[in-house]
Amino acid sequence: MGIFKWLLLPFSMIYLIITNVRNFFYDFGIFKSYSFKTPVICVGNISVGGTGKSPMIEHLIQQYQGDFKIAILSRGYKRNTKGFIEVYSDMTATQVGDEPLQFKRKFKDIKVFVEADRKYGIEQIEKYYSDIELILLDDAYQHRRVKSDINILLTTYDKPFYRDFILPVGRLRESRQAKKRADLIVVTKCPENLTSDKIETIKTQVNTSQHQKILFSTISYDEKIYSQKETKDLKSFDDFYLVTGIANPKPLIQYLKDQQKNFDHLKFSDHHNFTEKEIEKLKALKKPILTTEKDFTRLSQNIQHNIFYISIEVKLDKDLKSLLNIKPQ
User: Fold this and answer.
1) How far is the first Cα of the chain from the last one, in angstroms, to the nearest whole number?
2) What's the domain range around 25?
3) 53 and 179: one domain?
4) How far is CA 211 from the centre of its chain?
5) pTM of the model
6) Quick one: which of 223, 46, 262 has its CA closest to 139?
7) Mean pLDDT along residues 192-212
8) Residue 136 to residues 35, 55, 65, 68, 118: CA-CA distances in angstroms?
9) Distance (Å, rounded) from C-alpha 119 to C-alpha 106?
10) Which of 178, 158, 93, 84 has its CA nearest to residue 125?
11) Could you list the residue ranges that cross the membrane (predicted)?
12) Distance CA 245, CA 295 (A)
């Protein structure tokens, strides 16, 4: 721990006390958690940064859309609107957030909503959309007013929660002990060649309770890239700018290097709202742009030509549906 982080340690201790007291109040019923008649699956983490929540939500949709009428409820991070809003494909990321818009455009038959207050959001869904049979909560592990039927906790292979520390010294939103609320813990972004010995080591360090299950997932990249009007094979696409505004672009960068691609990387912060000046600079680039699917929802509002995205999906080492055992009401 560097000297600067040592200076931040008192603030971490204060933050830890506050979050622990809050969790204590919920654990012992001083603060109330609410259950709902519609089954709710929560996907979240206890650390800041990209742990792969969006791909996991999409995986759940793919697993359950044949059995349930699904709704997604998200905060709509960095949107310029407020309140409970249903997301439509022709909206913009500025209106509803990039991830909810990505979900809606990818799964047109799925209902997608944004609302910062998840309890209120679920109440509105049950009141006005009574045909919904399953609700997926995106990034809601700390929203303890909602008592989810299933809590899925994500942690990355490279930066697992058990080697991290509370904010601001580390990246944890709350104590490592918050893992006890999870029904399922998924170690995300694992290497393809993960050995059985390493798996057992991680299981020991995670130290799951008897009721908890642990899974391991890898990232799978699409072999094609997409624009608003065309589809191309990634194999034939080279000499481009990679533009990212996500928390952790390292896996994508490594994948493109493994594919022996020639590119320059323009990195922006997670959920970055591109300014007019930045957009004009990107438009003026002499080479095509490749970006992530999430970034495409923001960039394609203003850049329609010579910009493509690559999509990803997660692959799990076990069948998710059989572990969760969610059934229609």
Assistant:
1) 50
2) 3-220+315-324
3) yes
4) 24
5) 0.94
6) 46
7) 95
8) 14, 13, 11, 11, 11
9) 26
10) 84
11) 6-25
12) 6
CA distance 32 to 28: 9
Which CATH number do you get for residue 94?
3.40.50.300
DSSP 130-183: TT--EEEEES-TT-TTB--SEEEEEEESSS-GGG--BTTTSSBSS-GGGGGG-S
Query: Which tokens belong to 306?
Result: 């010579």
The pLDDT tens digits of the residues spanning 76-107 come to 999 999 999 999 999 999 999 999 999 999 99
Mean pLDDT, to the nearest integer, of 292-314?
94
Are 253 and 285 part of one and the same domain?
yes
Read off the tokens for 124: 């509105």
Q: Does residue 329 belong to any structural domain of this protein?
A: no
CA–CA distance, 328 with 133 (Å, rounded to integer): 7
Residue 194 and residue 229 in one domain = no
SS3 breakdown of the chain: % helix, strand, coil, rounded to 5? 35, 25, 45
User: 43: closest CA among 26, 25, 55?
Assistant: 55
- Verify that 215 and 229 share a domain, yes or no: no
Same-domain pairing of 255 and 270? yes
